[in-house]
Amino acid sequence: MPKLSALDLAMFAFENKQRPFAVGPLIVLKPEGKDSRGFADRLVERMLSRPVKAPFDYKLELGLSKLPAVESVEGVDPSAHVHRITMHGKATMEELFALVGELQVKLLDRSRPLWELHVIDGLEDGRVALYGKVHHGIIDGRGLIRMLNHWLSTDPSDTAVRAMWDGLPRSAAAPERATMAERLLGIWESAGNFVDSARGLTRLLAGRGVASLRLARGLPFPFIGVPNVLDGQLSDRRSFSYCVLPLKELKAFGKAHGATINDVFLATLDIALERYLRERGTAPGRPLVVDMPVALPAADGGNQIAVMQFPLGRPGTTPAQRLEAVCESTAKLKKETARQSPDVVMLYTALAHAYPSLIERVGLGRPVKLANMVVSNPFGMPQRCYLMGAEVELVLPISLVAPGQTLNVTAVTLAEKFQIGFLAVPEAVPEVEKLAAYTVEAFAQLQAALATPDAEPATPVAPVRKSTRRAAPKPASTAIVAKPVAPKPKAPRKRATGAGAAARRAAAG
């Protein structure tokens, strides 16, 4: 049976109707010519022939005498998890995003394997969308990228069609039957590991305590110095927006200034956020704090990451100073995590995020802030991708909004595109499409501020889009790139509760 880490368990424990813990991609395909008619049904039929593999065959097991665990289920029928939706008319991208917002907040059924896939047609220009949902307790961002790279092809003539549920390499599992001696030995080893992790956690917290007192260089405790911005009433509503930056320019700029792509991404976002908050009259007097997943070299369970906190640039500083501050913070973060074992930093992640979750659930006063937002960059697909011959136009990350927070910013690369998705609670982060638009302009501003004589600011390679789960306030400015979203998307016509009927129609037609 696959082992769940402390962080995996926390993903299940923290989930509720207002905090769904599903993650996954929104893929937009553009079938061409005669192949576009009936494309979605043919694709479903081909994918349904693929067997379900780990972690898509995992089901949550609960018991009074044991910790929650996941167990592999034999013979999972993918048609029970795949849903065909046809939107009426030529639905816009905004209407698609609104529909995805509706689907994202619905909790996955824990009595069966923890995923689903929605195949959506009826979009403008014959596009087809695939929205996949997987519980975050069984897969992390890096795992999702591995899944995508296996699912999609880099060859437009590739006739093999794989599916989302084709699976990932399985981590070492415990034997099906264990002797009493083996079980006792396992308990003893677990106790020893816990003691080692507790010692490591104590050292990590001690280091943060010293840094909080400014007695040494390092990262301070979480909950200290987090500005009270991006606040608002928690709800089960979600709004989504995205923008695309040119990856080639990001790489060249970072290389020229001794920064990683991630550093440039963070500095760009910091500039955009200051503008957004200043316009709303809520500009902070101290640096924003981000919650960032950090990949670990070796760990058990579905999430091989730690989620650590660090500050961005000081308000009012120049773009160059912001980039310098980000580089300094990320260097401290890398140094801190390198000194700890994966178990220690995952235990720290689970405990640190448990506090705001508990306060939020019991409703005791103002929500505790661990950070202002999650910012993640699991990279992505290095080349153009195709599925059943149709080119992938976009792979947008639909992530989650963490306890105590109202905004998630996740980037995924696709060939030359650096795609950035903004998922927000609209009551706290209204008009999130402005933030996406400002991010495009912030990168040009950063380039201009540190430009060499032969360098020119880049132009965006895709427009900003926005969606809202329910009616959004009417934009106060006509400068917003995205169109206002209708109160609800046009009611989609569900052609089957599962995919089996759609596949049979395709086979018959």
From TrEMBL:
What lineage, starting at the top, does this entry show?
Bacteria, Pseudomonadati, Pseudomonadota, Betaproteobacteria, Burkholderiales
User: What family does this chain come from, according to its entry?
Assistant: Belongs to the long-chain O-acyltransferase family.
Task: Please give one Pfam family short name.
Answer: WS_DGAT_cat
What is its EC class? transferase
Which organism is this protein's natural source? Variovorax humicola
Enumerate the transmembrane spans: none
Quote the InterPro entries the UniProt record gives: O-acyltransferase_WSD1-like (IPR045034), O-acyltransferase_WSD1_C (IPR009721), O-acyltransferase_WSD1_N (IPR004255)
Protein name (Swiss-Prot/TrEMBL): diacylglycerol O-acyltransferase
Domain spans labelled O-acyltransferase WSD1-like N-terminal: 4-265
Please list the residue ranges annotated as the O-acyltransferase WSD1 C-terminal domain: 302-446
Question: Which keywords are on file for this protein?
Answer: Acyltransferase, Glycerol metabolism, Transferase
Kindly state which reaction or reactions the protein catalyses: an acyl-CoA + a 1,2-diacyl-sn-glycerol = a triacyl-sn-glycerol + CoA
According to the UniProt record, where is the region Disordered? 455-509
